[in-house]
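User: My notes are a mess, but here's the protein and magnesium ion's SMILES. Can you give me a structure?
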Amino acid sequence: MSTSIELDGVAVLRQGRKVLDEVSLRVPAGAILSVLGSSGSGKTTLLRVVAGFVRPQSGVVRIGDALVSEPGRIVIAPEEREIAMVFQDLALWPHLTVHGNLAFGLAGRNVTRAEREDRIAAILARVGLSAKERRHPGELSGGERQRVAIARALVLDPRAVLLDEPLSNLDVGLKQELLSFFRELLGERKATALYVTHDPREAQALGDHTAVLDEGRIVHLGSLDGLRSRTDLPFARQILQALA
Ligand SMILES: Nc1ncnc2c1ncn2[C@@H]1O[C@H](COP(=O)(O)OP(=O)(O)O)[C@@H](O)[C@H]1O
Ligand SMILES: [Mg+2]
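Assistant: No problem, the inputs look usable. Here's the predicted complex:
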């Protein structure tokens, strides 16, 4: 069951510097928000705040109706948030098979063996990897590994999915193909998702809306086309050029 995500006035300080500065945003249940920002703008930190690994100094985070984080305090622990992450380096277990990677996250959950096997079989069929479930990550192509990574997140039936530049290491053709596929997968499951990237084309292709992050601040929220009127933003032109 997907859920809304809301941040209100979130600030994260690191070594006296504001890595996130008064970040407020809301992702309705079932919507995809892309977050566009250059390296170091705070994208990963933002996802870690939502996942519950970073405790903001100020501001609150809500997941659905629940207050999960308040100033200086994690109210609901990461493992209880039922949120799945897809990491930039994918972080697949190299010593486990595709099946093993998917089963790992389900272990210790209240899921019977039969249900676990059904869920793994269903998602592997959906991402086209049924025939490769006994392979190890090292025996897969780059695109196949990306599909294992998203399957591993979705098999948990999470309330939201956080994706941290999962496609940045792929060549252009494959990236395009996987972008459409990810969008389709998230859409059919009505998954709430936050998708962070430094690539304006990815942000536009994936997100229903986009938040532009600059040095820890959201400087634009809405469609990237809306940047046309933002002559105050020095990089707006650069983003629009990348989309042209
Ligand atoms: N644990 C930390 N300690 C100190 N600085 C950090 C820490 N985590 C992130 N930062 C700094 O915060 C800024 C934003 O980092 P990050 O969220 O990883 O950005 P992005 O994912 O957009 O590249 C960077 O300048 C980074 O060096
Ligand atoms: Mg990052």
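The chain has a mean pLDDT of 93.
User: Great, I'll file this with my notes.
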